[in-house]
Amino acid sequence: MGQLTFQATLGGAVNLIGPNTAVTTNLTLPSADGTANQTLQTNGSGTLSFASTSLTTGVTGVLPIANGGTNSTATATAGGVGYGTGTAHAYTAAGTAGQVLTSAGSSSPIWTTPSSLVVRSARTSNTILGTADAGTLIAITSGTFTQTFTAAATLGSGWFCYIQNLGTGDITLDPNASELIDGLTSYVMYPNECRLVQCTGTAFTSVVLSPFQRIITSTLNPFVTPPGYSTFQGYLWGGGGGGAKDVAGKRTGGGGGGACVPFSLTSTQMSSSQVITIAAGGAGATSNGSGSVGGNSTIGSLLTSFGGGPGCGRGAEDATSGGGSGGGAFAVGVVGDIGGVYVKGGSPFTGPATSDYFDQNFGGGAGPGGNSIFGGAGGAGNGGVNGGKSVYGGGGGGGVTTSETLMAAGTSSFGGNGGAAGAAVAGTNGVQPAGGGGATHTGANAGNGGAGQCIIFGVA
Q: Residue 77 in contact with residue 7, Cβ under 8 Å?
C-alpha cells in the first residue's frame, strides 16, 4: 500500500475525511525522557487534536482505527508539529482509494499518498516552493522567471518535487539565501527540461529526467551551462550572404547560404558558461553592385560556422555575374564569379572548380547554384541556373538573367531557404537560419541573407 504521512499543527484539530474515520481511542505519545505523556485526543467521529502545547521529540505511539482498519503510528517532533506514518489501508475502506487528512476548516490537503499520486501544478510565474508542494509536478507552461524555494531546513530532508519547463522561456532555479542546488547558488532550466529536485535538509540536488533543447536565434551572453549533463550537442548556422543589384540590366547573382556545423562538446569544454554569438545575414545591395558577406556564428572560441558569400552585381563590366558561394566549416563563402569563372565555396572543398557540386560536404556550394550537404548552397548565377540546395546549410538566393528571367531560390531541408529574386521589385530576404538573399535588377534593394541560429540540447 505504501507509506503515508500526515501533519497536524499542535493545538489545532485535524479531520479524517472519508470512510473508516471513527477513531475511538486517544493516542498517548510517551515521553522519551520519562516526563509527562502527550495526548492526541479523539472525539470518536474522526477529529483529532493535540491536548498539550508542547511535544517531546522522538516519541511514538499507536493510534487504533475503527472498523477493522490497521493501526497507524504517530511520532512527535520538535517545533510544535506532530507527524504520523502508516500504511495506506489504515484509512481505506474496501474498494476505495486512500483518504486525505486536512486541516480543520481548510480545503487544502496537507496529507496525501505521495507514493501513488503526483499532483500537477501549472504556473506561468514564480510562487515560492513550500512544504505543500512535496511530491508535486510543477509544470511551467510559459514565462521567463526565477523560481524560488523555501529554506531547506523548513522543507526538511526527503522533501522533493518535479519541475518541468514546458514553455519557451528560461527558468532560473534559486534556493533560499545562499543555499545551493547541485553545488551552485542558481542555474537556468532551459525549455523541454524536467528535473526531480530533492532536499537534503541543508541544500538541494536534482536528477535530469528529460533533457533540454534550446533554439537560439539571437546572441546569448552568456549561455549558462546547466549541471547534470555529460555532453552538449546541436547545430550552428552562419549567416546567409546578401543578394546583388544591377541597374544596368546585366545578370545578377543571389547570395550564398551560410554553413551548418554539427557539434558535440563535453561539459568540461563548455565550462560554466559560453557566449553563443548568432551572426547577422549579409546586407542586400541597395545600389548597383554586390551584396555583403554573411556573418560568422560562434560558440565562444570552441566553434565557428561561416557565412555565405554575396551575390555579384557588376553592371556593365560583365553580363555573367554569378551567385555567391556558400559558407563552409573553415572559411566564408566568396563573392559570385565574373565571366563564367567558377569560384570555390568556403573550405574544406572537395571537387574541381567546374563542378556543380563543388565543396559539397562541409564546404559551401559553388557560385553558380552549387549544392551542398552541411555547407551553404551557392546563389543563382551563371547560365541561368537556379539557387543551389543544401541538406543542413542555407539555400542559395535567387538570381536574375539579362532578360529579367527570375532564377528560383534554393531550398534547404533543415536550414533556411534562399530568398526569391525580383526584376523591378526588391529581392526577398533569405530565411533564418542561413538562407541567401535574393537578387534584383531595378528594385529598391536586393534581399538580405538570413541570420544564423543555434540549436543546442543536453545529453545526460
A: no
Among the listed ranges 145-154, 176-185, 353-362, 424-433, which one has the minimum average pLDDT value? 353-362
From the list 276, 173, 175, 263, the residue with the least C-alpha distance to 226 is 173
**Which pLDDT score is estimated for 255?**
94
Instruction: Confirm if 392 and 262 have CB atoms less than 8 A apart.
Output: yes
| Dist CA 243 CA 285 (whole Å) | 6
pTM comes to 0.74
- Bigger pLDDT: 231 or 361? 231
If phi > 0 it is left, if psi is from -120 to 50 it is alpha, else beta; for residue 34 that is left
Find where cell 529554506 sits: 151
For the chain, the domains span 3-111, 120-210, 213-460
> What secondary structure, in 3-state letters, does the chain show?
CCEEEEEEECCCCEEECCCCCCCCCCEEECCCCCCCCEEEEECCCCEEEECCCCCCCCCEEEECCCCCCCCEEEEECCCCEEEEEEEHHHHCCCCCCCCCEEECCCCCEEECCCCCCCCEEEECCCCCECHHHCCCEEEECCCCEEEEECCHHHHCCCCEEEEEECCCCCEEEECCCCCCECCECCEEECCCCEEEEEECCCCEEEEEEECCEEEECCCEEEEECCCCCCEEEEEEECCCCCCCECCCCCCECCCCCCCEEEEEEEHHHHCCEEEEECCCCCCCCCCCECCCCCCCEEECCCEEECCCCCCCCCHHHCCCCCCCCCCCCCCCCCCCCCCCCCCCCCCCCCCCCCCCCCCCCCCCCCCCCCCECCCCCCCCCHHHCCCCCECCCCCCCCEECCCCCEECCCCECCCCCCCCCECCCCCCCCCCCCCCCCCECCCCCCCCCCCCEEEEEEEC
Counting residues of the chain whose pLDDT is more than 70, the rounded percentage is 65
Q: Are 198 and 206 in contact (CB under 8 A)?
A: yes
Q: Please state which CATH class domain 120-210 belongs to.
A: mainly beta
The closest of 357, 360, 434 to 368, measured between CA atoms, is 357
- Alpha-carbon span 264 to 347, nearest angstrom: 21
- Which grid cell is 262? 554539427
Q: List beta partners, residue 36.
A: none
Q: Which of 172, 173, 190 is nearest to 229 (CA)?
A: 190
**Residues in the chain, total:** 460
Contact, 276 vs 454, CB < 8 A? yes
Specify the pairing of strand 160-165 against strand 137-140.
parallel
Phi, psi (rounded to 5 degrees) for 459 = -120, 115
Cα gap 89→352, rounded to integer Å: 79
